[in-house]
Amino acid sequence: MNFTNLWYFVTVADEMSMSKAAQKLYISQQSLSNHIARIEQEFGAELFERTPRLKLTYAGECAAKMAREILSLNRQMRTQIDDITNQRKGQLNIGLATRVCGRIVLPQVLPKYHLLYPNVELHLETGLTLELLDHLKDGDLDLILGVQFPEYLPEIASVELYQEQLCLVVPKRIMQDLFPENTQAVIRSFHEKGVDLEAFKEAPFLLMEEGKRIRNHSDKLFAKCDYSPHIILQSTDIDILFGLCFSGLGSMFAFEESIRKYFPFEQDFKDILDPMVHVFPIMDASAVGHTLLYYNEVKYHSKASRDFIQLLFETFNVQEKATIM
Does the pTM of the predicted model rise above 0.85? Predict the structure, then answer.
């Protein structure tokens, strides 16, 4: 049994499809089937049930669990040896749970990191936080940048990188329609005290699809106001919502870091000079987004990985000292 065969076996176990696994491994399906057959012959046991659909046998489940541990230990061994011989090369596998992490965090860190480690090959994997945490546990990822998630496993540690405030972006046309007699006074009040969502019961909204982080926050805010919003459009793409909001179609929710992409500002939203929209803060303790670093604190991390984490801490002024092997 070699590591390549174990890798092939685990990939099929993860994908539960010979064709998908073959595509992921860049080999033919027939070649992969032959590898699996040889592994089963070597073990003297069937690892998969083929019909009515591909499924791990009990022996396969046991073998898959141990194979993942062996592959993880092999990666850690190679990492330690690379560090000992002072080789600044290898791979750094990063999971991104939100597009904001790729748009906000990475551009601030990766250019500096590449100067330190020009020969380190970076791999980015996007997905849901829970799925990425599974890959982190198995050793397929070195770290994750994502949103706050309930406690997962004891060995998975997290450190908060930054917080950002949720805001309401309102087209100027809608503000004038809702408050025709005192528009400017209401705008000043919303800037100073935070927006009053009760005043938007009749307003049209552009919302993210259910299950998205911003949608979860906005649904809780509407529940507190005890009304169902007038939703005219839902999307999984916040850039589409921004474009439609700028056109005056409806109001939307966005975190301040996403807003900075469109409106550079220092501290105060009232400093944003835009002819189409107003941006109002939401003064609610629950309307705060948390971006975290997740890592496996019982696994050995390469110097390249530790230096990347250190750059994250320096960039976002993280004071907490994490224990990283």
Answer: no
Return d(Cα 100, Cα 146) in angstroms, integer. 9
DSSP 78-100: HHHHHHHTT--EEEEEEEESSHH
Give me the residue label for tokens 């670093």.
293
How many Cα neighbours within 13 Å face the side chain of 178?
Answer: 21
- Domains by residue range for the chain, with CATH: 1-82 (1.10.10.10), 164-288 (3.40.190.10)
Element (H, E) at 233: strand 230-235
Q: Is the pLDDT of residue 170 over 90?
A: yes
Alpha-carbon distances of 104 from 68, 93, 166, 200, rounded to whole Å: 33, 18, 16, 30
The position carrying tokens 């890959």 is 135
Q: Is 152 in contact with 129 (CB distance < 8 Å)? A: no
Per-residue pLDDT of 109-145, as tens digits, reads 999 998 888 888 889 998 877 888 888 888 889 999 9
Instruction: Report the length, in residues, of the chain.
Output: 325
Q: Which amino acid is at 234?
A: Q
